[in-house]
Write a structure and sequence with these properties.
28 strands; 2 domains; 4-stranded antiparallel beta sheet; 374 residues; mainly beta; globular
Length: 374
């Protein structure tokens, strides 16, 4: 009561403003990301978004899809698109890289992190490699790696341009095997890279090809626990799936399928295939088992197995989860940005990221979908 007699009303107003200001500052700090003490969240409108810089061809099947992705050793998420280059998400904001930054094409079909931490990008026009240590604190560096071999396998006398290492050769799939070799599945064939030179698989010494396959239009590559390399063939070649055991190549056509893109080995050692005949198949080493879920239409583009052992399938008809007994389907009704899903990535926290048509990107936390596309 004595204070009310000694201090004028203006002092009360000043004290009230200071209290309110301190209270607001406290609220802002509670929204900062873990590990941050002063910097605000690097997002807009409450959520980071992929920013599209090109005009999507809405009436085409290529319609700027988020086609592939991975989480690197540093925790960054990478997403390759068919038209917008590649995006990197650090948990706060997205950085976009295109031909202006050194990519050979804005169409990115495949993405790989090697054992040294380099990011390899299989594009619509060859290979690019990103070295995160190449220019610390400086500009982003992408190096184009031309696919050239010395045995003449990249030379076609009827197509002189084919002998040019910079002639377009889409790289649809990539894999680094346990020995450190990097495999590339391209329109023109399967190549193995030892860090210095490329080998065209069908021309490698000692390779037995009794099946007579061409191994072109390679849509997917997998190394199983026994060291076999599996190749999924594109629709143009129609060779099904091929297995290379280090010496011989054997061809299979699960359920008669000619087009086999996604390949996955589950924790039990089964190999899973997606095909063009509205089904997925499992190979246990002896027999193929078909899972002809009637609503999985058209194509299965990608597969992954999550930490809980559930299998996820990206298809033209939504995102599917298989618990070993039954399928659960997620669509736009559940929050997907599109029912055409091309890419699945599980992050370290167990979230499922789904890349969709029209550069759509969503994250599923087990309960709800969050949209990261504008």
């Amino acid at each position: 009561m004595a204070l009310s007699c000694r201090y004028p009303l203006s002092i009360y107003s000043l004290l009230l403003v200071l209290i309110l200001f301190a209270s607001c500052n406290g609220q802002v700090k509670t929204n900062l990301p873990a590990g941050s003490s002063r910097e605000p969240r690097a997002i807009t409108a409450g959520q980071a978004k992929i920013i599209k810089t090109h005009v999507a061809a809405e009436n085409t099947s290529a319609a700027w899809n988020v086609h592939c992705g991975l989480q690197d050793k540093a925790g960054n998420l990478w997403f390759g698109t068919t038209g917008e280059g590649v995006y990197r998400y650090d948990g706060k904001s997205f950085a976009q890289f295109t031909t202006k930054d050194g990519l050979s094409s804005n169409t990115v079909w495949s993405i790989l992190e090697d054992k040294a931490g380099n990011i390899w990008l299989g594009t619509g026009d060859g290979i690019c490699r990103y070295d995160p240590l190449a220019a610390p604190g400086g500009s982003e560096v992408f190096t184009r790696i031309p696919i050239t071999v010395t045995d003449g396998s990249n030379f076609d006398p009827h197509d002189p341009l084919k002998n040019d290492p910079f002639t377009e050769n889409p790289v649809w799939s990539m894999l680094q095997d346990e020995r450190g070799y990097i495999w590339f599945g391209t329109r023109e064939g399967a190549y193995r890279y030892d860090g210095r030179s490329f080998t065209y698989l069908l021309h490698a010494d000692g390779v037995i090809n009794n099946s007579g396959v061409h191994l072109k239009s390679i849509q997917a590559i997998l190394e199983d626990k026994s060291g076999n390399i599996w190749f999924g063939s594109g629709l143009g070649e129609g060779e099904g799936v091929c297995r290379f055991d280090g010496k011989s190549i054997t061809s299979f056509k699960p359920d008669g399928a000619a087009w086999v893109k996604p390949l996955l080995e589950d924790k039990a050692g089964n190999i899973w295939f997606g095909s063009n005949i509205h089904t997925v198949s499992r190979f246990d080493g002896k027999i193929f088992t078909s899972f002809a879920e009637k609503e999985i239409l058209d194509r299965v583009y990608s597969m992954t197995e999550d930490k809980a052992g559930h299998l996820w399938f990206a298809s033209e008809n939504g995102l599917w989860r298989f618990d070993g007994r039954a399928f659960t389907r997620f669509t736009t009704k559940d929050g997907l940005s599109s029912n055409s899903v091309f890419c699945i990535v599980e992050d370290r926290a167990g979230n499922i990221w789904a890349g969709t048509r029209k550069t759509g990107l969503c994250r599923y936390d087990g309960k709800t979908f969050t949209n990261f596309s504008d």
